[in-house]
Amino acid sequence: MLLVLKRRKxxxxxxxxxxxxxxxxxxxxxxxxxxxxxxxxxxxLAQVKFEAKVSKQKLGINERLRIxxxxxxxGDNFNPPNFSNFTVVGGPxxxxxxxxxxxxxxxxxxxxxxxxxxxxxxxxxxxATITIDGxxxxxxxLNIQVTAAVDKPKDPNDANFIASENIHLVAEVSKxxxxxxxxITVVYKLYVxxxxxxxxxxxxxxxxxxxxxxxxxxxxxxxxxxxxYNGKDYRFLILRKAVLYPxxxxxxxxxxxxxxxxxxxxxxxxxxxxxxxxxxVNKTVSAGNKTIHVKPLPEAGKPVDFAGAVGDFKLDVxxxxxxxxASESFQVKVAVEGNGNLKLFKLPKISLPxxxxxxxxxxxxxxxxxxxxxxxxxxxxxxxVPQYKGKYPIPSISFSYFDLKTETYKRLSSDEIIIxxxxxxxxxxxxxxxxxxxxxxxxxRVVLNNDQFAFIKTKTxxxxxxxxxxxxxxxxxxxxxxxxLLIPLAIIVRRKxxxxxxxxxxxxxxxxxKLAKKYLxxxxxxxxxxxxxYIALEKALHNYLKARLHIETNDLSKDKINSLxxxxxxxxxxxxxxIAIVKNCELARYTPIxxxxxxxxxxxxxxxxxxxxxxxx
Length: 617
Hints:
The protein is α+β, with helices and mostly antiparallel strands and 617 residues long. The protein has helices spanning 2-46, 159-166, 474-502, 504-519, 521-525, 530-549, 558-567, 572-588, 595-615, and strands at residues 50-54, 58-60, 65-71, 76-79, 86-101, 104-117, 121-125, 129-132, 135-138, 142-147, 167-173, 184-192, 197-205, 212-217, 225-229, 232-246, 250-254, 258-270, 276-286, 290-294, 311-319, 323-324, 330-340, 356-358, 362-370, 373-386, 390-394, 398-403, 408-413, 417-421. The protein folds into four domains: 50-147, Immunoglobulin-like; 159-294; 314-421, Immunoglobulin-like, CATH 2.60.40; 504-615, Four Helix Bundle (Hemerythrin (Met), subunit A). The protein is extended, with a radius of gyration of 43 Å.
């Protein structure tokens, strides 16, 4: 019995030891798993991530797409893909997030772009690249589907909806059913509500006038006008004017003008003074396609010699002389004057007797094109030389055109002109009337004489030449001694250069002036063209600040510029002048400006940039 109890006790102790061993093993396994998890996490955190994310993969052609390039470690040489099927309307915007949670650092850097599709279809945004720790990383390509325009929710507080309701680009066509070669006009007007402000616009698609003869009318210096659109008060500006002459019949299409506009719209928030705060948005507006139905000219009553003239014309045939001698020249001018497609048809030819030698005509055009079409005159001037005496008729010339007022064909005819050649040889090969007037012309046989080659020289004026040598000539001694004579000049130039290099203040002034000319070169080329000049001037000022103060474009606010220039110890007066020039650039596009004011703004900008570069530390 005692033996059995001992055995039971031994078994119980053995089981306890086994339980303890199993608990120890489980704890060891638990610690090992924790260690493995920590190692895996640290390895995962050490991996570099560089990826592209889009706000949507399917959008309408009237919507915007946002694409973010994110990385979990800072890198260099970021290269975005070529957005060939999209227009970049915003960006790149850069943001950095850096945080510590439970001792673990989380870093994220993002480059953001805002894109507007150019057309419908399926497109691929290719890879972006960046260099991190010497290694190059690439994003995966993204497939984007662009569909037809979609209806956007009409939120009255949405800035894009407010912009779409208050800005309109309209193409006004004078006539949609013209005849072939009848002038029509297209005027593009931008209507803007008084409640919003336009900062700038860029033309992203120009209208194309296929199957039209076209000419743009200058619209520089146009002022903002007040008008109505859909019964509401608007301000409008004429952006383009064009005169078109259709060159084929049927249905012709005028492609639209499309603008990307940066504007500010009122929000539902107010500042501390109770004024509405403005929200900046970008809006793409289009004038839309215009269809023109071109009517053919009627076949009924069309003259045989009709050359395509359409409009209202007058014909003149004028001879500079009517009485002259043989071998004396005179001019016959055939001119058509009026309003119509003057550059698009040919003038009728004159028919003269063979005894009058006629040269190729000199064509002249004195035509001005405005919104009513072409107006002026075209002419052919013939130089005529009579060979024999007599009286020669210039027959009547006829010219036909289509009159748009009566919608009928009209014919114009000139009077017959008689040219009287008084002195000169008589044409014996022609039969004449009793008063010597030629009634027929027969070509005369050419008789050769024995002196027909007399103009060829048979004697020469050759002169013998003597060999000359270069050695010991004046040129030889000059080239030999010139290096020695240039040594004093080189010494003088070197001393002047050293003196110039030592002039630190003068070099700083010259460097500042050179820098101002570098940034303002494009603006100087555009002097006289208001819009192009002030865009180039504003871009030059921004580029200079970006290079001088090392700031991005989205930081170029007036307060930021003021504070940074004060930090650089630039005078307050110079800072005020610089900000005043920037304001002038923003306002000048919407007000009439003459070239004198533009030259003053250019000189002031050059002087201000030079002063900033000299004063900034």
